[in-house]
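sorry for the late reply, my laptop died twice this morning and i had to redo everyting from scratch. anyway the thing you sent over, i finally got around to it. pasting the sequence first so we're on the same page, its 203 residues, then the predicted structure underneath. double check i copied it right bc i was rushing
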Amino acid sequence: MRFTKLRWKRAERPNWALPFFAGLVAGAVLVSLNMGVFVTESGFLSRMGLAQMKRMELNENAFFFYVLRKRIGPLWLAAILSTTFAGIVTTYLFVMWVGVCMGVVASVAMIRYGIKGILLLAGSLMPHYLCYIPAFFMLADLCFRMCARLYYPVKDYTKNAQEQSGTYGILGNFLLLHGIFIVGAVLESFVNPHVMAELLRIF
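ok and here's the structure:
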């Protein structure tokens, strides 16, 4: 009985930092092994690309709907996959993939620009990632709980755990995630472009 409850407690809050940082390291290694692909004169985060960003006139309203589609899409994809038998595995892979993407972007930025690359990376993430980061881990927890509830239920869990993973709790959290992603999309579309415009003056 004690072991079963302990197992449920651990399963309820998996350590998402492990697959995320594993992906982060994998992304950095991927860049170091393929420098010719990622670090080219006209490639990702190149000076040519940054110069085009400086001259670009942004339609913030159209950009908002573009960003919203890009953010809500993975949210629904992760939620749909969590209802399958392999939902827990796909959630871990999803977290790892985000880590890989972050590792690639951070590595390329630092290789190209050094300290300024860190500033470029930080500026590109602010302030919208203050919403996206907690929402991302909240989504991972939600997907894990959904799959565990559907396919891997533990019989001897506490009443509180059962209530937390109930249908209404999961649905409420899923709706809350939409709200957080919408706020993040607003910040990314209407605030971050001004942050980047100021930051790009040093490049």
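The radius of gyration is 20 Å.
thats about all i looked at so far, will dig more tmrw
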